Amino acid sequence: MNLDYNILNVIMLFGAIQGFILCVFVYQKKFANTLAVNFFLLFMFSLSFYNLIYALLDMEVFQYYRPLHMFPYPYKWLIGTGFYFYVKNLFPNKEGFIYHKKEWYILLPAILYGLLRTYWFIIAVHENSFRITRVVVESDFFRIHEFFYQMFTIILLILSLKVIKKNAVLLTNIQKSKPILKWLKRLTYVFLGIMIWDVLLYLTDLLIHNWKESIDFSYPTFILNSAFIYWIGIIGFTKPKLLFNTFFTNENKLEQYKLNSISEKLTEAIKLKELYKNPNLTLMEFATEIDSTPKELSKYINEIHQMNFSEFLNVHRVEKVKQLLASTDVQKFTLVTLAEKAGFNSKSSFNNSFKKITGITPSAYKKKNNAIKK
Questions:
Q1: Are 100 and 87 in contact (CB under 8 A)?
Q2: What are the structural domains of the chain?
Q3: Rounded Cα gap, residues 354 and 373, in angstroms
Q4: What is the model's pTM?
Q5: CA–CA dist 243, 87 (Å, integer)
Q6: pLDDT by residue (tens digit) across 105-145?
Q7: Residue 54 contacts residue 87 (beta carbons within 8 Å)
Q8: CA pair distance 108, 92, nearest whole angstrom
Q9: 96: helix, coil or strand?
């Protein structure tokens, strides 16, 4: 067997091998977050397969069995998809670790391209030739496909960064989350940088070669891919727990996540939406508005704010009345009108709550406030 090998395609080949070994190593480990592990394996296997195919192509291995160059595995479309779902499944929602079924469409490009490659592979096996490849290349399909794959992956990486940023806020109270968040952010930025480099290099290659791609110009990308795989491998072999969070290993810590999530949504509901201004607002309605349950919301208010739901609403209603009393056109309205604007449904409830929270009656507070203005 005569192979056309050089130092560059050997580095590409060994990068792929390193990735496959890492996949086997991670698969044998027992991690609680199975979905995150599986999507990481999909990402790493596909990235390694990418390097393998082009290394073998450059070494002219496929001349000994031509159909293999059309092997029906849509690896390019699964790299970004695997990475995105890996990141997303590192963080549970209130039901715990789940597959995000509403985003199934992200797998659609890989499924469609996989079917297309299967069709081409069947033709290549039947003919035992490169004819179908030449037909596809001459149709400019691969050129368009490459561009869309690159843009698709970049979009998924940007979405991954948003997921990380959101959870970085929610997990501020969990000290053990900081190392993995730091690693995950760095990993995503590096991957995004590689993809941007890939796009620029590909466009440069097309411009120089009159819109015809060349594998020679792709060497820097594959070498960078190999370095990326080796870097992940070093972390995976030496600090495997860094790849998959361990700070949600029990019910208490998942509960902490839920409370942090409720805190963020509760703040939005109070500060931006001012839901408390609805005098007939119920615990069930409020919980539904912030995508929680009455039990979780009630527990949060009791434990964090040391009060019940009704008292919590009244605190914010009183604050709203105080804001209205500080406005310039306050003289146009009576205290009862201001109370109704803030969400109180009766004068007695307003007076009792205001005095309990501030220590003085609404009338006394208004008089004091007017004296300060003068």
A1: no
A2: 7-243 (1.20.1070), 251-373 (1.10.10.60)
A3: 21
A4: 0.67
A5: 10
A6: 899 999 999 999 999 999 999 998 888 888 988 888 988 89
A7: no
A8: 24
A9: strand
